[in-house]
Every structure is written in structure tokens, then in C-alpha cells.
Amino acid sequence: MDKKGILDPHSSKNHRNWAKPKIQKSQVNGKTEISLHNQILRTDAKARHY
User: What is the mean pLDDT of residues 7-19?
Assistant: First the structure.
């Protein structure tokens, strides 16, 4: 494991943050729109809640 800020020139090109964002929303026409997959997951979770 390398320490933060210490990367050799070759690996610094390929260095990325691979963490996913916590909230995944796509913007359509300036409004945030939840993806269809996330909508289905939410409705399933709500249905199981009761």
C-alpha cells in the first residue's frame, strides 16, 4: 500500500478514487431524477416494510 501523496510518475496517471458516490442521481432537464433501478429497489423496500 502506498501513502497518500507519494506516487511514482507512472502510477499517478492511473490513480483514481474508485469509491462510489453515496447518492446516485442523474440530472435530466435540470431536475434530479432517480434511476429506474433505484426506484424499483425503493418501492420493494417500502412494500416489505409493512
Answer: 61
- In Å, how far are 1, 2, 3, 5, 8 from 12, measured between CA atoms? 14, 11, 12, 9, 6
pLDDT of residue 22: 62
pTM: 0.34
What are the domain boundaries of the chain? 9-49
- Please state whether beta strands 31-33 and 26-28 pair in parallel, antiparallel, or not at all (unpaired): antiparallel
* Rounded (5°) CA angle 34-35-38: 90
- Bridge partners (DSSP) listed for residue 33: 26
